[in-house]
Amino acid sequence: MLxxxxxxxxxxxxxxxxxxLLTVTIVxxxxxxxxxxxxxxxIWFDIVLPALLPFFAMSEILMxxxxxxxxxxxxxxxxxxxxxLPGTGAFAVAMGLASGYPIGAKITGQLRRExxxxxxxxxxxxxxxxxxxxxxxxxxVAVGMFGMEEIGWxxxxxxxxxxxxxxxxxxxxxDPSYKKPPKKSxxxxxxxxxxxxxxxxxxxxxxxxxxxxxxxxxxxxxFTSMLFVGGCIMVxxxxxxxxxxxGVTNFLQGILESFVSIFGVDTxxxxxVLRGFTEITIGCExxxxxxSSLFWRTVTxxxxxxxxxxxxxxxxxxxxxGTDIRLRPYLVARLAHGILAAAFTAILWRPISKAFAxxxxxxxxxxxxxxxxxxxxxxxxxxxxxxxxxxxxxLGLSLLGKIxxxxxxxx
Length: 411
Prior knowledge:
By secondary structure, the protein is an all-alpha fold. Helix content is about 75%, strand content about 0%.
């Protein structure tokens, strides 16, 4: 058995050898690496940057203003029974659903650093909140790549059903280090809404930054995060193309074809699965162009979106860096999410596609080819809508808690 020191030494050597091998391979195919990096840069600037920047900035500002703490008190009765998560987790879930990868991971990391959730809660929350957004699934994948808006609703329904199921299952995930937080007994005569405002004011006082500084810090930190996201997309785009020209993809394709053919799966989708293993957008585009039936291409795209790719996982690892949130449970959850999404797509794709066959939504139909500023405006609108829905839901729960049922006994 290897000791920890020996294991670390061999791990370091392996990582160094792998890095040298990749560098040599990139030097060997400079033209391929150059075009792949340009493709990744275009994806980042045209799609990812305008879609994520408003959500990144708004999450920072809302955390500093105490609005997240306000919503956490109001949404505790919803999140705790369903997912065994604090009410503040609803903010990460809503922003993740509206914006997509990796905003859910970023907010989860922020919540953990602010001690608004425990480590185990963060591990469950990141699996639930870090999802794809409907604009990407319907606008980019279905309309932009497949040219069929109706299959986007099938993919979106399967995606959200599967992540909801994963979140419910993770509620029962045993963790010896998990300790249920002590229940705070509310003061007599103090409503939930009043406690929410108290938490917001306390959080704002603890932050202490003037709004101008808060806004500037939010923009600066958001652009730093966005640059890292763009770097990940470019690097993994290059790695995927290098693997193709170096013969690694063909080697793995031969192995997987012999395995999946046993289950009656169309082997023409294997190249798309391998590309989607590293980068989600490139994988979905490969799935849309695969020499296979529409059914298998749709199922493959759903699998890739659920898994989300190594590029997104690298972004998630950075967003939670410095916390005690472990990455391994998240990777297991993403794998389960991808498999469940593919299964739900196979079940739902006919009825949902027929139901939405005549539905055409203009604001989604052209979203994949929309210019930078319109996409930025659309994403900002989605972020405001997500916060408004959360506030409305929280206030509704607060009012519902005040309703008393009076029973009258008639003799």
